[in-house]
Amino acid sequence: MTGLAIDIVKRGGQRPSEQFSHTKLHASILAACLSVRTPPGQAEVIARTVTASLISWLQTKPEVTSHDLRRIASQHLHTHHPDAAYIYEQHRITI
Amino acid sequence: MATKHTFDYDLIVIGSGAGGSAAATIAARDGKRVAIIEADTFGGDSPNWSDVPTKALLHAAHLYDEARHGARFGLRSSTLGYNYPSIRAWKDLAVGRTGAGGNRRYYENQNVSAYSGTAHFLSPNEISVNRRHLSARSFLIASGSHWVAPAIQGLDKIDYLTPRTILESIRPPKSLFIIGGGGIGVEIAQLMAIFGTKVYIAEKASRILPHQDAEVGSLMERTLHEQKGVTSLTETRVLSVIKDGLGKRVTYLRGGVEKFVKVDEILVAAGRLPNVDLGLENATVKYTPKGIEVNDQLQTSAKHIFAAGDVLGRDSHTHSALLESRVAANNILHKTKASPDYTATPGVIWTFPAVAHVGLNEDDCMKRDLAINKAVAPLNGIARSNTSDFRDGFVKIISDKKGVVIGATIVAPHAAEMIHELALAVKHGLTADDIAQTPHAFLSWSEAIRVAATKLT
Question: Which of A7, B137, B141, B362 has the most beta carbons within 10 angstroms of its beta carbon?
């Protein structure tokens, strides 16, 4: 899973691209789940499932934008935890 | 002074199939800097995986079938056989001779830069192809569509065929279960049955070829059963599939009764979905899973991005995609905008007998509450059916109350050629009387068109 060499073009192309990190993605989804008081075990399972789905989507894409990652992750997260998906989408505004 | 933006290309075309290649070559001939991106095989679906290879195989199958049944004409064909690898070699030759199939140089020779890889929009004017960033003033999205698997229990756990992968089979399977009784499913059913495969074809609707007139479905069902031993399972829902030894077991529900059949292979031909996973959100292009939204000029919600072909989610005819590609090229290059005219676009199913239709069918007219006249001329009423010893088929013409031809369906050996006479009538508003008054050569299948038209006058 960590072997994926995918470049992430950062928002607006203002900052340099960075390598895809599944740990970072996992942590962000976990944080969104925990922020809506999801039990830690369930949050971990959801984060793992969503990360796996997203990695599967990334298999044929050598380069995507950070916006794409956020969009696809929130689509998958929405099926598992709609409240966490809302926070995941809106956290830049709500924090 | 306003900054003049510079781009790598004037036009980037995503997809090298019928929807993309025509526009790319037109723009290149116009002196524009053009790039074409292909995620799969250059040339797209039609020359590589659908129209050309399927029709080449069907041609060989039809020759074999006709020769096999030639005893009634005094031909000795008892020792006739086939060599499937040689038939596949013929199919590959036909694909190679198109020039476009799998041939990147075809585009490069026309001053079009060709890139292999998946295109992904990074911003409205920039895409990424294998980490290479390319920018353009305009884009044409012609990324096509792909076969989708229906939600059937166990389908994701077994290997199944699609109309694309079956073309690469080493030999025809002994038995085949086809899920989906549309045009492609029926073509492959006949193709494989001719080569000796026991074929089952499952369709949810009450007849195979549900998008055609009712007579077409029932006639093809009867023809396939009586001549090729194909079992049509209409009003059937496939419940589950499971690996069973070397084969597969298909469980289906028909008439409220659960049944199962064991087959060698399963072929899924239950529909296609547009390829829209291109980062379209980054380019502000509106779309749904059923296709990209465009206006009459094929322009998307982003004014510099156009779309053509299967990705629009409309019909999936190659000739419609070519028409859209030419229209999109015109609208990208010129200020005078055009719209594709789909009136009289023929549709053909390349079975034997072939099925061809144009304009409205009877169901379309009922949905629109149109007052119509219709006439059917069975093929057995014309002289050619005697000399060819072939009787299953008909010509059906639909006209409005003034006699203007608005639609037609033909089931006949050369229906694909015959339909264009009626397409011309639909396109130019000719009446049934105009057709009836036109001389038709004696002993041509087209005499059936004159007979049907005469019935309407």
Answer: B141
pLDDT digits (tens, 9 = 90+) for B70-129: 888 998 887 889 999 999 999 999 998 887 666 788 888 889 999 999 999 999 999 999
Q: Could you give the ipTM of this predicted complex?
A: 0.77
Judge whether B258 and B125 are in contact, CB under 8 Å: no
Chain A positions contacting chain B at CB under 8 Å are: 7, 9, 13, 57, 60-65, 67-68, 71
For residue range B295-330, list pLDDT tens digits in order.
999 999 999 999 999 999 987 799 999 999 999 999
Phi first, then psi: give them for residue B350, nearest 5 degrees: -90, 50
Looking at the DSSP bridge assignments, the partners of residue B32 are none
CB contact under 8 A, A63 and B281: no
Helix (H) or strand (E) holding B55: helix B51-68
pLDDT given at position B144: 95
Name which of B16, B276, B263, B269 is nearest B164 in CA terms.
B269
pLDDT tens sequence across B398-451:
999 999 999 999 999 999 999 999 999 999 999 999 999 999 999 999 999 999
A7 chain-B contacts, CB cut-off 8 A:
131
For chain A, how are helix, strand and coil distributed in percent, rounded to 5? 65, 10, 25
Domains of chain B: 9-44+100-146+273-333 (3.50.50.60), 155-270 (3.50.50.60), 347-456 (3.30.390.30)
- Determine whether the interchain pair B279/A65 forms a contact, defined as Cβ–Cβ distance below 8 Å: yes
**Record: contact A65-B122, CB cut-off 8 A:** yes
Which residues of A fall within a CB distance of 8 Å from B39?
Answer: 60
The span from the CA of B142 to the CA of B292, in Å, is 10
Burial of B419 (0-12, 13-18, 19+ CB in 10 A): buried
Measured distance CA(B405)–CA(B392) in Å, rounded: 24
Which of A65, A67, A70 is the best substitution to test chain B (most B C-beta atoms within 10 A)?
A: A65
Q: How far is A30 from chain B (nearest CA, A)?
A: 25
CA pair distance B221, B182, nearest whole angstrom = 12
Q: Residue B241 to residues B165, B174, B178, B334: CA-CA distances in angstroms?
A: 19, 18, 12, 53
Rounded Cα–Cα distance for residues B116 and B107 (Å): 12
> Which H/E stretch holds residue B127?
strand B126-129
Q: What angle do CA A6, A8, A9 make, to 5 degrees?
A: 140
Amino acid at the residue B73:
F
Average model confidence (pLDDT) for chain B?
A: 93
User: What's the pLDDT band for A9 if we cut at 50, 70, 90?
Assistant: confident
Q: Across the A/B interface, how many CB contacts are shorter than 8 Å?
A: 32
Whether the predicted pLDDT of B338 surpasses 80: yes
The token pair that represents A88 in the structure block: 């995941």
Whether residue B281 and residue A71 make contact (CB cut-off 8 A), yes or no, is yes
- Rounded Cα distance, A18 and A1, in Å: 17
